């Protein structure tokens, strides 16, 4: 089973919500899980209705019966660089001085590649960390990662760094990070909607990840809605407009007389039914594209009341029912 779960997706697909639901589902199986965000949006804190996360690992949820724990961390690139300088160069005081001079901000803002190295390094450190008994501190780490369009470069940046720095601690650190990211313990999951652009970006993203030798995991189809009518049902309804008007009248929607309110409702209802059937047909085609990727796929319902803590818990339950922890 994977220990590092990287969750990416096109903007607007709900990847943060899916990452949170996945982390909670794993924790509810009795595991100790760390949920990490790296984009500075404090999306985890909002979903779990807690105060903004500091640059430290904090427990935000406990599994049923006290089994399993969910911890969270918002990685800050500047603080990660200070950690890096202290870890490899013992520049604790000097590092703080560099921060005051603005050098840390310069390094993490002007050079985005450096920022990605620090973020991925911090995440992989959490994956590798062991306690005094030699056991992994976390059974799983779930990363709410950058969007699909940037994910391959984000994860592969340490390959470039290792190539530039042939020797020394930077080279060794970059290689250690890539050993984690490219290992069988890592899986990059993609979140999509049953819409053309997100599905196409998912297909392209899978191709890029595979070309880069990065381990692709699963596809999470988010915000799905139940199919009520198909094209055949809409056609049948259209062939019996009179009976449809009578059914509306029996339901109390207008009188039975010709030209009454019930009859006036027939055409608008048929138009809506036709649009729904077209959407269902398109979703079927998009599901076929996702199936063609040859990856396990999980579907999550649309949260009508928005993404909040009860919604995340409900999605976590759906994932557990679909066997996501296996």
TrEMBL record:
One of its GO terms (molecular function) is ATP binding. Residues 5-180 form the ArsA/GET3 Anion-transporting ATPase-like domain. It comes from the Bacteria. Gene3D superfamilies: P-loop containing nucleotide triphosphate hydrolases. This is ATPase. It comes from Streptomyces carminius. It holds the Pfam family ArsA_ATPase.
């Amino acid at each position: 089973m994977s220990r590092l779960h990287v969750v990416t997706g096109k903007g607007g697909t709900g990847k943060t919500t899916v990452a949170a639901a996945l982390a909670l589902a794993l924790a509810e199986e009795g595991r100790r899980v760390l949920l990490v965000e790296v984009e500075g949006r404090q999306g985890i804190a909002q979903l779990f209705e807690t105060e903004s996360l500091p640059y430290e690992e904090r427990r935000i949820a406990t599994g049923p019966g006290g089994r399993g724990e969910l911890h969270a961390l918002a990685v800050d690139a500047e603080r990660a660089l200070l950690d890096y300088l202290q870890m490899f160069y013992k520049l604790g005081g000097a590092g703080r001085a560099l921060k005051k001079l603005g050098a840390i901000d310069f390094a993490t803002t002007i050079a985005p590649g450096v920022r990605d190295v620090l973020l991925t390094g911090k995440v992989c450190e959490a994956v590798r960390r062991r306690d005094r008994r030699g056991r992994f501190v976390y059974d799983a780490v779930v990363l709410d990662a950058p969007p699909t369009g940037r994910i391959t470069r984000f994860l592969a940046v340490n390959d470039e760094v290792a190539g530039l720095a042939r020797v020394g601690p930077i080279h060794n650190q970059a290689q250690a990070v890539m050993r984690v990211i490219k290992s069988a313990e890592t899986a990059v999951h993609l979140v999509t909607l049953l819409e053309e652009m997100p599905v196409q970006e998912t297909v392209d993203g899978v191709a890029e990840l595979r070309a880069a030798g990065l381990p692709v995991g699963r596809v999470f189809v988010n915000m799905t809605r139940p199919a009520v009518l198909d094209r055949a049902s809409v056609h049948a309804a259209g062939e019996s407009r009179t009976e449809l008007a009578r059914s509306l009248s029996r339901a109390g929607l207008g009188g039975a007389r010709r030209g009454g309110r019930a009859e006036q409702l027939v055409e608008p209802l048929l138009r809506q039914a036709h649009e729904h059937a077209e959407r269902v047909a398109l979703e079927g085609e998009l599901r076929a594209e996702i199936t063609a990727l040859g990856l396990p796929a999980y579907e999550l319902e649309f949260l009508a009341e928005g993404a909040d803590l009860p919604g995340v818990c409900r999605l976590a339950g759906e994932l557990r029912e679909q066997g996501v922890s296996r």
